[in-house]
Design goal:
Blueprint: H1 3-23, H2 38-50, H3 55-80, H4 85-97, H5 101-114, H6 119-132, H7 136-149, H8 153-169, H9 173-180
Helix pairs in contact: 2-3, 3-4, 4-5, 5-6, 7-8, 8-9
Length: 181
C-alpha cells in the first residue's frame, strides 16, 4: 500500500472525530427545534405579518403560543406600527378567533379600502366574519353590492349565488326572492 493511500485512510478515520468535536462546541447542528423556540416564533411571525392570510404559519403560531400568546405578539407589532395593514388584518383574525366576528368584520371593512392589493382576500375574510356573526342582512347586501360592481358575468353570478344561499340560511325570504328574480 502506498504512503498516499495510508495518509488518506488516516485522514478519513480522524475526520468524523473532528466534526463531532466541533458539534459539541455549543453549535446548534440539530434539524429539529421546539415550536416555542423564540427564533422560530419570530421567523414565523415575520412571515405571517408579510402574508397575514397564511394558514400554516397562523396554525403553527397558535399551537406554539396559544391564541392569547399570539394575540399579544400581534398587539405588540400593531403598537410598533399602528398603520400597518398586515398587523391590522392579523388583529381582525384574532378577533374572529376569539368569537368577536362583528368586531372583525368592522375592522376588515375599513381595511378593504386601505389595501387594494389584498382587498379580495380581505373581502373573503370579511364575508367569513359576517357569516360567523350571523349578520345575514349585511352579508346579503354586501354580496349584492359586489355583484352589481362586478363586470365579469361569472363573478357576478358567483356573488349572487352566494348571496342567495346566505339569504336562505338567514331566513330572509324577501332577499332570496329578489336575488333569484
Amino acid at each position: 500500500m502506498s504512503l498516499t493511500r495510508r495518509l488518506l485512510g488516516l485522514c478519513l478515520c480522524l475526520a468524523p472525530a473532528q466534526v463531532s468535536a466541533a458539534s459539541l462546541a455549543g453549535d446548534d447542528w440539530s434539524l429539529e427545534h421546539s415550536n416555542k423556540d423564540p427564533a422560530l416564533v419570530a421567523q414565523r411571525l415575520k412571515k405571517l405579518h408579510k402574508n397575514p392570510f397564511d394558514g400554516g404559519h397562523w396554525g403553527a403560531l397558535r399551537k406554539a403560543l396559544g391564541l392569547e400568546g399570539l394575540a399579544k405578539k400581534i398587539s405588540a407589532g400593531r403598537r410598533r406600527a399602528p398603520s400597518d395593514v398586515g398587523w391590522q388584518i392579523l388583529e381582525a383574525r384574532v378577533d374572529l378567533a376569539r368569537g368577536h366576528a362583528t368586531k372583525a368584520a368592522d375592522k376588515l371593512a375599513a381595511l378593504e379600502l386601505a389595501d387594494t392589493r389584498r382587498a379580495p382576500r380581505i373581502f373573503e375574510l370579511r364575508v367569513t366574519a359576517l357569516e360567523r356573526s350571523a349578520d345575514w342582512g349585511t352579508l346579503v347586501s354586501l354580496l349584492e353590492q359586489r355583484a352589481l360592481e362586478a363586470t365579469a358575468k361569472k363573478r357576478k353570478s358567483s356573488l349572487l349565488t352566494r348571496a342567495h344561499g346566505f339569504a336562505n340560511r338567514g331566513n330572509r325570504a324577501e332577499d332570496a326572492l329578489r336575488i333569484a328574480a
